[in-house]
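Recall from the previous lesson that a structure prediction takes nothing but the amino acid sequence as input. Here we apply that procedure to M protein repeat protein from Cladophialophora carrionii. The sequence below is the only information supplied.
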Amino acid sequence: MAAKPRSGWNFLQQAVASVESRLDDILAEDGERPKRTNTPPHTKKPSSDLSRSNSNASASNDRLQERLARAMAKKNASRTESPVPPQDESSSPISRAADLSTAADDAEAVTNTSHLTGQDAKDKVDDGSQVIPDEEAPQEEETTVLLEKARAVPVSALQSDGDTSRASTDVLRDSRTTSNRPSQDIPRPSVDSQTRQSAAEILEAQAEMNVYLERIDALRRDLQTLVDSVSESARKNADTAKQAAYSAEPGSLEQKISQKDEKIALLIEEGTRWSKTEMELRSTIKKIRAQATASAKEQETSKIRAEKAEQAFRAMEDRAKRAEAANKRVEQNLALSSATTKDLEAVRKERDALNATLTDMKTQLSKANARAEAAENKAQSDQLDKERKRVADLQDDLTSAKVERQISEEKLRQEIRELQAALEREKGQARAMESEMLSEQAALESKLESFRIRAEEASSADTGHTQAKLLRQIETLQNQYAAASQNWQGIETSLLGRITNLEKERDEVVSRDAELRKKSRDTTLKLKNAERELDSLRNKYADMDKSLADANEEVQRLQKKTTQLEKDLAEALKDLETQKQAAERELLRRIDEEKSKWTANLHIPRTESPAASWRKNSGLGFDMGHLMSPVQFERATSRRSSIMHNTFDSNTPPRQQSTTSFRGLANGSTVETPSVVTSMDHDEYFANVPPTPLTTSHHSQRGVVNDLISTSTVGAGPSVQLVERMSANVRRLESEKAASKDELARLTTQRDEARQEVVSLMREAEEKRRIEERLRALEKEHASLSQRHQTTLELLGEKSEQVEELKADILDVKQMYRQLADTMK
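The prediction returns the following tokens.
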């Protein structure tokens, strides 16, 4: 119990000692930096002598404040004595500010690590025992004072550096304004003195920067040694806690506390490891910043060079202008005198040379500008890409580290809560046992009082009789003890057998659990594969349903089409029959009319010439011959009906009936042509029209009859073609119907197969669910068995404790009887 606060105080004292040693190293000179072996003696005190009072803490606080004040005074003096750097090294304040910021980050990291170790030690002390005085408050004040002062130092340094950088920029601005004035002529010795002065300032700035870099390296080394010492101390404390856990009694409170100490030490070690990684990440960030400052410095130098080149170019332009003016003056003088021709030629040559040099300078300047811009753009892009990649990698590492740290912290908190709950349970059990022991002690005291009363009564009565009675009681008690010991041995053997059986059952349950877990993993994998296949089959089934629906729609459309065609065909046949009947009736009527007309014409007087009579009745004769051949008329009507049906569309069959009207002609009038409203050719349209007298007056009756025979025989063709076309359409529709039926059957078979696969997958899923339920039941059974095993172990421990107590009671009773026997003797 006492080792826990001592170990926590040891961590805190080591952190404070490391901070003090680091401050000593900062205050020391560059050549006289103390070694790590000459640290103050209080850093290597044993853990038994690490109990400090509040007076020591306040004294250490005063000492740290004095050292920090001296360090700040020394740094401020060194900064005030340092000269202002020149403008050519304008990036040195930036680099120094970056170095100081890195130093401030290092100091803040040290204070954070010390504060972390102190806080961990404090948590450890609070978790281990709750009887520790509040001695950590002064140390926390120390760490907060150190943090504030370490932050104050870089801020003042940055402010002073900012002032120096502003002064240097003002000096550069003044120097540029003086250099840009073309009218003023700077003497050469002043320029040399300025260059020497700037070189001296550069050397001083470099020396100062080297001093700062050495200090930063020393701080980094000290920080590394501090982290190593903290990790080493945490490892040692973990080892000591582990040894204490091993040396302590199993299941005791000290063992649990030592295990908790070990966990806390491991947690501190892990924190130091994370602090190391954080230091490495900060060092990489510092390197990136240094590279950025270097690139900025290069850009500034390139800009300065470009400005110098521009100034030279302007000077050359001024010289060229002056040369041109001189050339003009020389030309004017040349007009007055021819003696200066040689000088004019020289001036012209000089002008040409100057123009050539000017063009060369322009080309070189343009090339240099292009190269500088390209290099600058490339460097910026490369640097930005590198920085982005590095920042992304660092962010990923930081996020992963944070997540892992949170997970580990959650696990440790859970373990601490479980240990606290177990400790509370054990405390409750100890209280219950203590109450039971007190009750048993009271009972034993009452028994002892009764025995004493009996002894007193026995001493007052006859000694021999009482001695014999006591001996008999002792014998009976011995017999009872022997019987109880035999019974206990039997109970113990039975309990041991039950324990072995329970262990075997536990091992079997564990093996079965492992097998079931393996099977469950296999089944889950199979289920996932089956689910994937089921999804694919569902997609296929959906596609098949869609295609089946499309096929059904197509079949329905074709069926509707076939039914419509069948209806149209039936209507056409019905119309054909009605037209045939009407034509036959009309034929019979016309035959009767023609017969009557023929008989009337036979009684014409002979005074008329035969030619006139023939010319008059030629149309009637043709009509009569046409009407006397019903077969030809029937063929013509069938041809017209076939042409009419041939024009029907398969989708929208419009039907237009053709009617043939024969009007009787009185006294040789012409027969009206039949009106056929169909899409025929011109020859087909006039093929069955009876000729008029105008068209047949020059033809003989024989030729007209032959033409009628030929047209009637030709008119029988389209009806056969129509039937063939209709039969071809019917065959095509039947083949399409058969193909759609085959496709429908194939789709139904595929649907049935998919349904069977879905059913099998559902069965497998049901089987997996049953296996999972069985696994849950087995897990519950395993938990109940483990709980029963735990309860049996607890009962066994309680029984063993009761047996030990009974043995002790029996020994006490024996001793009492012996004492009574001795007193009776």
